[in-house]
Specification:
By secondary structure, this protein is of the alpha+beta class. The chain contains 10 helices and 16 strands. The longest helix is centred in the N-terminal third of the chain and has 15 residues. It is elongated and about 70 Å long. The N and C termini lie far apart (about 50 Å).
Length: about 425
């Protein structure tokens, strides 16, 4: 029998309407579809129902941060595949989705996922870490909106393991919905309607293709929206050159502000770093490599570097020029993650028997989509630390920092979780 297949996807984004006065929302979703190719499975198990009563596991929670730098390893893999393109994705959403998948994985498939996530302590602690994180992020945040959640849509023809369902509910706070995948159009509508509701209508058609062979969908979503602590005046925005390459410049609307901003000059990585706080203790970090130093920064940048920048930022007077921009990314992660050692889940060697008893299940597709928009009132980004660097002492005169060539950006919450990460090469 040919392998049953799992399809996974993600998305994030929004565009502003006229006169928008708040930061544009940032969204991301991940999707997992199991699709048995043997029609007989649906026929044989049509009368079966998913067991509804499950015994929940013990809930001794221990928060354990991972040691591997999945966010930047993934960034480098995406950047090497398309060095001249914009990049934007959510490390948090992708790692959450992989962690959920690991609950149903066994043998080498599980090992690869856990090692990719950077597990250095018992697996239970990784899941407790995500449980704690999800509970924390679900709390109200003063000054900005942030929501993160999970859902499972499963066809009653599939006997899902009770332990898998229980763990999704308990550890990942997932909503679980029975779905008739025998009616692909109705199943597609059910899932897309759920996604649209959770993302406040910003993503209305996450699933574009669905057929009667698919029997499970797992979704992860993030919604983030915030305002700058100190915004830019739209009256100061002017068309200016942005140097896409040394030979090519395009005109972009360039925001302008002069005041006290968080700043650090990293001599080791040859870049300038500016931190723009949002209301509510989140921060946008913009990294401007020196001329011809983008490759060096991309090669050496780590989460540790971001966190160190965040700890050591100092306010100084800047004359800051930052383009308004809207970028998006769409990635087939089943082609990228094997380069990071996560490969078996996407092949006939996959062991996902923790999801259901059948051994012929694999992940056929993992699609990740994301979008961000930056304007005078708000943006998405975050700061972290790392590396050896040098500060320029504050002076009475303003230091001029102009983001008129490709730069990096990140969004972190107050607990240093990297919500989003990207590169702007074409605003």
């Amino acid at each position: 029998m040919s392998p049953e297949k799992v399809k996974w996807a993600g998305s994030c984004g929004d565009k502003a309407g006229p006169g928008a006065t708040t930061m544009q929302p940032l969204l991301l979703l991940c999707l997992l579809l199991l699709s048995p190719q043997a029609a007989s499975l649906r026929h044989r198990h049509h009368s079966r129902e998913v067991k509804k009563k499950v015994k929940e596991p013990p809930t001794e929670a221990t928060v354990a941060p991972s040691s591997k730098d999945l966010a930047f390893d993934l960034y480098r893999a995406l950047a090497s595949a398309a060095p001249t393109e914009n990049i934007f994705f959510s490390p948090l959403s992708i790692s959450t989705s992989l962690a959920m998948l690991s609950l149903g994985a066994r043998s080498d498939t599980k090992t690869q996922i856990l090692e990719g996530l950077g597990l250095s302590l018992p697996e239970e602690e990784l899941h407790r870490h995500f449980q704690h994180l999800l509970q924390e992020l679900s709390q109200p945040h003063g000054g900005f909106q942030l929501s993160l959640g999970n859902a499972l849509f499963t066809d009653p023809v599939l006997d899902v393991q009770p332990a898998f369902l229980s763990a999704l509910k308990t550890l990942y706070l997932a909503d679980i919905f029975p779905t008739n995948f025998g009616d692909p159009a109705e199943a597609k509508k059910q899932i897309n309607d759920y996604v649209a509701k959770q993302t406040q209508g910003k993503i209305g058609s996450l699933i574009e293709n669905l057929d009667s062979t698919q029997i499970m969908v797992m979704v992860n979503y993030i919604f983030f929206k915030a305002e700058w602590e100190t915004g830019f005046s739209p009256k100061s925005t002017r068309e200016r050159d942005f140097h896409v390459t040394a030979e090519t410049a395009v005109q972009v609307p360039m925001m302008h502000g002069e005041g006290q901003y968080y700043y650090v000059l990293d001599d080791n990585l040859s870049c300038s770093v500016v931190g723009l706080p949002y209301h509510g203790n989140a921060t946008a970090v913009f990294v401007l490599p020196d001329e011809d130093r983008m490759a060096q920064v991309e090669k050496e940048l780590t989460g540790k570097t971001l966190r160190k920048w965040l700890r050591t930022f100092r306010k100084r007077k800047l004359e800051l020029f930052l383009p308004k921009f809207s970028i998006e990314g769409s990635y087939q992660l089943e082609r990228v993650l094997p380069r990071l050692g996560i490969s078996d889940a996407f092949t006939s060697h996959a062991d996902l028997s923790g999801i259901n008893n059948h051994s012929n299940i694999q992940v056929s597709e993992m699609v990740h989509k994301a979008m961000v928009e930056v304007n005078e009132s708000g943006t998405k980004a975050t700061a972290a630390t790392g590396s050896v660097f040098t500060f320029r002492s504050a002076q009475l005169s303003s230091l001029r920092v102009v983001f008129n060539r490709p730069f990096l950006m990140s969004i972190l919450d107050s607990n240093l979780n990297i919500l989003f990460l990207g590169k702007v090469t074409k605003p």
